[in-house]
Design a protein that fits this description.
Elements lengths: L2 H15 L5 E5 L2 E6 L8 E4 L10 E4 L3 E5 L10 E8 L19 H9 L4 H9 L13 E7 L6 E8 L4 E8 L2 E10 L4 E8 L5 E8 L5 E6 L2 E7 L3 E2 L11 E2 L9 E11 L2 E4 L3 E7 L1 E10 L12 H15 L4 H16 L3 E3 L9 H6 L7 H18 L25 E2 L3 H5 L1 H5 L7 H22 L9 E2 L15 H4 L4 H16 L2 H22 L1 E2 L5 E2 L10 E2 L5 E2 L6 H21 L3 H10 L49 H16 L6 H13 L3 H14 L8 E2 L6 E2 L2 H14 E2 L5 E3 L10 E8 L3 E8 L2 E9 L3 E6 L5 E7 L2 E2 L3 E2 L4 E6 L5 E6 L6
Parallel strand pairs: 31-35
Antiparallel strand pairs: 1-2, 3-8, 4-5, 5-6, 6-7, 7-12, 8-9, 9-10, 10-11, 11-20, 12-19, 13-14, 14-17, 15-16, 17-20, 18-19, 21-32, 22-23, 24-25, 26-27, 28-29, 30-31, 32-33, 33-34, 34-40, 35-39, 36-37, 36-40, 38-39
Helix pairs in contact: 2-3, 7-19, 10-12, 10-13, 12-13, 12-14, 13-14, 14-15, 17-18, 17-19
């Protein structure tokens, strides 16, 4: 591309998009993404080839509507484009009562088998008799395909995802003409936008189509519009389901599977758009824009999704009509402002940035040349993924966030509540995306309603209970249909785990109205179930039975594997935490004192944490031998993270035992999935071992991350994408830099030696503070605290340093030295407090 044509293209592009809208970066032979003004190096993934498969595509989304952008066609051709589409409400099935009404009559027998007979195999058999129906599956919306007619060889190909702009771009050059494709999803306007431009006039010729796998029909409604319609399956067999010959069941009856629609319009500049029956053709255009919207028949988790197809189509067309009233510049500006309002709250730098190298090459060379800056990109990518897959009013991020291309996806692409959905939201508060947790709270509210029926029909108990597999219909029963392994199918402690997120939201935000009106009723209902669920273990302690340590088994006295016992460590940790949070809430709000007293009396009676024969934190109340010592689940370490009942500072003996458990698990091959490795990173951070955390981060990048930096899980035919590893590792990185789960705010508590220099801004701590930190040669050089509320705070300085001075502008703030590098001080809402450290004088 000549310098003259380059300048011409720059001028044309600036005029077309609006001179104040974008700052474009163009070098000879390539067009890169648009950056916000004032930024020279936005966090970005980029590649020199199209995606070869779905998991290598680049995700865009607005919480409700998502796409995976391939940067090429399904045939790998860079001159074509494929966007695989999703709508977060498109699921199989319909609301139904999946509880096993006979379950409660087996409960006493299970308890007798465990506590009196020590017949754990019989308990497993009886637990299967308590199982209900399987959950449903998340479904793909369809595919948007663009097939271009080009002649001549391609050069300077590049595809990229600008995390700051939330825009996926593909560019290449043919015969001195540069072609650029941009794709983003707008949250304000609920539309997928694709813009294609050519640096030379009238060079764009393209056939545009829609297709999919769910009883799809496509037709043109005008010369520039297409409508894709379909009907979701009435049932998709879940993970572990005895699928038989019909893993996917369909029905023509309204409501037995929902109708859905995608509406698309194409507008061209310098050319024409023509329609055939099921595709649109762009001829001789200089640029064109594709707008796409969607709608489904979903009417809420309690209602049959029986909205007529005509109404669903009309809803999609209404959204499209509203979006097409705005210019491309207006759509892009509104989308960018909305996204950056969240994304720009936090920044992270870890040494020199290698952004000039393609992301897949950086990943490949990581083992030989460890690159901390790639972890900084990975961290921001995790925040980006949560923003894209969880927004107020949307469904929560599922096993694959927002993105799925399969009618029968792994594990239904649903919400697996024995780790995955909770891990998805660990980063929300610490990484300054509190609003993104609102869909999770909506889910919990729905589960409290279906879970009340489960508690009553499955166990004949009050309150509400939730088990291991959740779907859009708020399925809460133990799944399995008599064939599921109890260690996952019968695990029933999702309620207290989910409730921990409600209380954490209060701790980070200080929102007492949220605590009173939203969190407390849910927490209390869950605690009512747990209080009724507890029974005497025969030794004077309160225990749970049946009890499962998530997906792990033990060796029964006869030397063979068993799953069901009593008082697993995770059960006791979750109940102890829930009761403590309820007591604190009742005290803070001055309500339900009688209920709080009942909870307070029960806590000392709960089965205690125990240290086993290897010096490990026991996983079960009995020191069983593990059948699977390398199990990827490490649920008994919950009180270390994300819980806070075990800390090196306050419970050193238990922390030591937790470390032994972690070391034994990893030595036996545990953490072989991305999400499990992410959990291990967080454990190391809480154990204040930054170098071990970095070691696990390095293993995550090398063994559980694909070229698009998406987390992987080993599968039968290859790696499977699960988003929890991305989001969990992002939370773990934040824990390495800032912790506030104890009684103090700890600065750089687990900084690895591999990160000698860096800075982070915008992390959040409990108590409602934003925290900025900078360090050089491993020593903190500056810290800024910005509290939302006035209060007394305990601050712990980095290891080897002490806090010497605290200032709010020119004012010196008094503080008192407490213990172990901790100072106490009063900070006022709206202030900006700078901390100055002693120690590390050579860099201070």
């Amino acid at each position: 591309m000549s310098s003259t044509s380059r300048r011409s293209f720059l001028g044309w592009l600036s005029a077309t998009l609006g001179s104040s809208t974008f700052l474009s970066r163009l070098s000879v032979g390539q067009v890169a993404a648009f950056m916000p003004e004032g930024s020279s190096n936005p966090p970005m993934l980029w590649y020199t080839r199209p995606a070869k498969e779905w998991a290598e595509a680049l995700p865009i989304g607005n919480g409700s509507l998502g796409a995976m952008v391939f940067g090429g066609g399904s045939d790998g051709s860079p001159t074509n484009e494929l966007l695989q589409l999703n709508d977060d409400t498109l699921w199989s099935g319909f609301p139904k009562n999946g509880n096993n009404r006979d379950a409660s009559r087996y409960l006493a027998d299970v308890r007798r088998a465990v506590l009196e007979e020590k017949n754990y195999h019989l308990a497993d058999t009886l637990c299967r008799k308590m199982q209900g129906e399987f959950a449903e599956a998340y479904q793909p919306l369809g595919n948007l395909r663009l097939a271009f007619t080009h002649t001549g060889p391609i050069s300077n190909y590049r595809r990229e995802l600008d995390l700051d702009a939330a825009c996926a771009c593909t560019s290449y050059e043919i015969d001195s003409t540069t072609f650029l494709r941009e794709a983003f999803v707008s949250n304000p306007d609920q539309v997928v936008v694709v813009r294609v431009t050519s640096s030379q006039p009238h060079r764009l010729n393209c056939v545009i189509s829609l297709d999919g796998d769910l009883q799809i029909a496509t037709k043109s409604t005008s010369s520039d519009q297409l409508i894709l319609t379909g009907k979701a399956a009435s049932h998709v067999a879940g993970a572990g389901h005895p699928q038989g010959e019909k893993p996917v069941e369909t029905s023509d009856r309204p409501g037995e599977g929902m109708y859905f629609a995608a509406a698309m319009r194409v507008a061209a500049e310098g050319g024409i758009v023509a329609a055939s029956e099921n595709e649109l053709t762009v001829k001789d255009a200089t640029s064109f824009i594709v707008l796409l919207t969607s709608a489904t028949g979903y009417r809420g988790f309690h209602s049959m999704p029986d909205t007529a197809l005509e109404q669903v189509v009309a809803e999609a067309q209404k959204k499209l009509a509203e979006a097409q009233q705005k210019t491309f510049t207006a759509l892009r500006d509104r989308q960018r402002i909305d996204h950056q309002r969240l994304f720009r709250r936090v920044s992270l730098e870890l040494g020199s940035n290698h952004h000039d190298q393609p992301t897949d090459q950086r990943l490949t060379s990581f083992s030989a040349s460890p690159d901390p800056s790639l972890l900084a990109l990975y961290f921001q990518y995790g925040r980006y993924l949560l923003i894209c897959s969880s927004r107020p009013g949307s469904q929560p991020a599922n096993l694959q966030g927002l993105w799925n291309y399969q009618v029968t996806p792994p594990w239904g692409s649903n919400w697996t509540s024995n780790i995955n959905i909770e891990m998805n939201y660990w980063l929300a508060e610490t990484c300054n995306l509190s609003e993104c947790a609102l869909p999770l709270f909506d889910l919990i509210d729905g589960l409290s309603q279906t879970g009340a029926l489960t508690a009553r029909e499955t166990y004949a108990l009050p309150g509400w209970a939730v088990h291991h597999n959740l779907d859009i219909w708020r399925t809460s029963n133990p799944v399995g249909e008599g064939v599921g392994q109890p260690t996952w199918a019968n695990w029933g402690m999702a309620g207290p785990w989910l409730c921990s997120h409600l209380y954490e939201h209060f701790l980070f935000t200080g929102d007492s109205a949220f605590l009173k009106t939203r969190a407390w009723p849910l927490m209390k209902g869950c605690a009512e179930f747990c209080l009724a669920w507890l029974i005497d273990d025969g030794n004077g302690y309160l225990t749970t039975c049946p009890s499962e340590s998530t997906e792990n088994d033990f060796l029964a006295p006869d030397g063979t594997p068993a799953m069901t016992s009593a008082g697993c460590t995770m059960d006791m940790a979750l109940i102890r935490e829930l009761f403590s949070n309820c007591i604190a809430t009742a005290k803070a709000l001055d309500l339900d004192t009688n209920f709080a007293e009942r909870l307070q009396k029960s806590i000392p009676q709960l089965v205690r944490y125990q240290i086993g024969k290897y010096g490990q934190l026991q996983e079960w109340s009995i020191d069983f031998e593990e059948h699977t010592p390398g199990q990827r689940h490490m649920s008994h370490l919950y009180p270390l993270y994300p819980g806070s009942q075990i800390t090196p500072h306050e419970t050193p003996e238990l922390a030591k035992a937790a470390r032994v458990s972690l070391e034994r698990r990893l030595a036996n091959g545990g953490a072989y999935t991305g999400w499990s490795r992410a959990w291990a990173i967080a454990f190391w951070a809480r154990l204040l071992d930054g170098d071990k955390a970095w070691e696990s981060l390095s293993m995550l990048i090398q063994h559980s991350t694909n070229s698009s930096l998406l987390d992987t899980h080993p599968g039968g035919t290859g790696a499977i994408f699960q988003i929890d590893g991305n989001l969990g590792a992002t939370a773990a990185i934040a824990e390495m830099l800032l912790q506030s789960h104890g009684h103090s705010i700890d600065l750089l508590p687990a900084l690895p030696t591999a990160w000698p220099d860096g800075k982070v801004a915008g992390l959040r701590s409990r108590g409602g503070l934003s925290v900025d930190l900078e360090w050089i040669a491993g020593w903190a050089t500056s810290c800024m605290l910005r509290p939302d509320k006035t209060g007394s705070y305990l601050l712990r300085s980095p290891n080897g340093q002490t806090i010497a001075v605290i200032k709010n502008g020119a004012e010196t703030i008094p503080f008192k030295l407490q213990r172990d590098r901790i100072v106490s001080t009063t900070l006022h809402a709206g202030g900006s407090y700078s901390l100055h450290f002693s120690g590390g004088d050579e860099v201070a």
